[in-house]
Design goal:
The structure is a single chain. Strand 1, helix 2 and strand 2 form a beta-alpha-beta unit. Helix 3 packs parallel to helix 5. The protein has eleven helices and eight strands. The protein is an alpha/beta fold. It binds thiamine diphosphate (TPP) and iron/sulfur cluster.
Length: about 325
């Protein structure tokens, strides 16, 4: 009988697959000495993508720096659910800034550490999309422009969730929020608005910009690890589904995030000094409906008379991303993460 080669399909997964990898290739979470930077007992909703993304990001940052890291946190869900004074779930030195000035406070902390000769301690600023793309945008651009030595992480749940799901400049078209049109011919957020902060960050020619998703936690860890090894301003924009605000099932958080990536609406890429250096090539391209149908904020597009024109317009956005970021085979070259 002919011998068949054994294929280790699970190589690289978080469970058994990690044991098949060299020590330095194993995921941060597979490490017995992982730090659990955001400890149990916090008050995030079930299935909160932001809580998951933050723990993986900060755990990776702690491992990369030998725990020599501190964080400045903008007001928002991440701050509120993790740190109801006098309690905290954080296992690192952590400062709550105002809603809009996390980048400026982090710049100041990094400068103070440098003056005190403690530049080995790395500074992270973090916040939601409201705190980043809207109210904190000026401070963030200033931090980039001055090349301050800070990694800024935006956890993008596409609305102001902490105060009850208001629209931000990261809210996608047609998504219902508490402050977008509830009824009429085209309920939800309008088309043609919003801003792409990763591309704006690239325009500042900072050394490192990346997008990441809780759908691919190894990729997320790798990007944070890479960012921690670079000096100067760095920016990582992480897509984090919010079951409460998106009307998705808590158990579907990873699925929803994966569908956003695989349909092309949330491209995963890295850029250095303004140029894209790697991108995630779609493993299984899916239509945008597969992503939208999982979320009640888009429920008005479906039902007895689906809004085919609006769905087609969203599909056109995904197709445009796929072309622009070269997300399908034949168009993309990929560098090992
Ligand atoms: C100057 C100011 N305006 C408004 C608020 C109220 N506020 C606190 S958190 C928040 C929304 C945060 O949204 P986002 O940054 O997207 O983070 P999320 O809660 O979605 O994670 C708002 C409006 C505030 N704290 N300060
Ligand atoms: S409202 Fe959304 S972002 Fe906030 S804790 Fe709940 S799931 Fe997380």
């Amino acid at each position: 009988m002919a011998l068949q080669p054994v294929k280790f399909y699970q190589t690289g997964t978080f469970t058994v697959g990690n044991r098949l990898l060299d020590l330095d290739e194993r995921s941060v979470q597979a490490n017995m000495r992982r730090t659990n930077s955001l400890n149990s007992g916090h008050r995030a909703c079930q299935g909160c993508g932001e809580a998951l993304g933050a723990r993986y990001a900060i755990d990776a940052a702690m491992q990369a720096t030998g725990n020599q890291v501190m964080a400045v946190n903008a007001t928002g869900c991440l701050e509120v659910f993790s740190t109801p004074y006098p309690e905290t779930s954080w296992q690192i030195p952590w400062i709550h800034s105002l809603f809009g000035n996390a980048a400026a406070v982090a710049s100041g902390v990094a400068a103070a550490l440098r003056v005190k000769g403690r530049g080995n301690i790395k500074v992270i600023a973090q916040g939601g999309d409201g705190g980043t793309t809207d109210i904190g945008f000026g401070c963030l651009s200033g931090m980039f422009e001055r090349h301050d030595d800070v990694l800024y992480i935006c956890y993008d749940n596409e609305a102001y969730m902490n105060t009850g799901v208001q629209r931000s400049s990261a809210t996608p078209p047609a998504a219902r929020t508490a402050t977008t049109m509830a009824v009429g011919a085209h309920p939800g957020n309008v088309f043609g608005t919003g801003k792409n902060v990763p591309l704006i960050a690239m325009a500042h020619h900072i050394p490192y910009v990346a997008t990441a998703s809780v759908a691919n936690l190894r990729d997320l860890e790798a990007k944070v690890t890479r960012a921690m090894g670079i000096a100067g301003s760095r920016y990582i924009h992480i897509h984090v589904p919010c079951p409460l605000g998106w009307g998705s099932a808590p158990a579907d958080t990873i699925l929803v995030a994966r569908m956003a990536v695989e349909c092309g609406l949330f491209p995963l890429f890295e850029a250095e000094h303004g140029e894209i250096t790697s991108r995630y090539v779609l493993r299984k391209r899916v239509p945008v409906e597969d992503y939208l149908k999982l979320q009640k904020r888009f429920a008005h597009l479906f039902g007895n008379a689906p809004d085919v024109r609006t769905i087609a317009a969203i599909q056109a956005m995904a197709d445009s991303n796929i072309r622009a970021f070269r997300l399908v085979h034949g168009l993309a070259e990929r560098r090992k993460a």
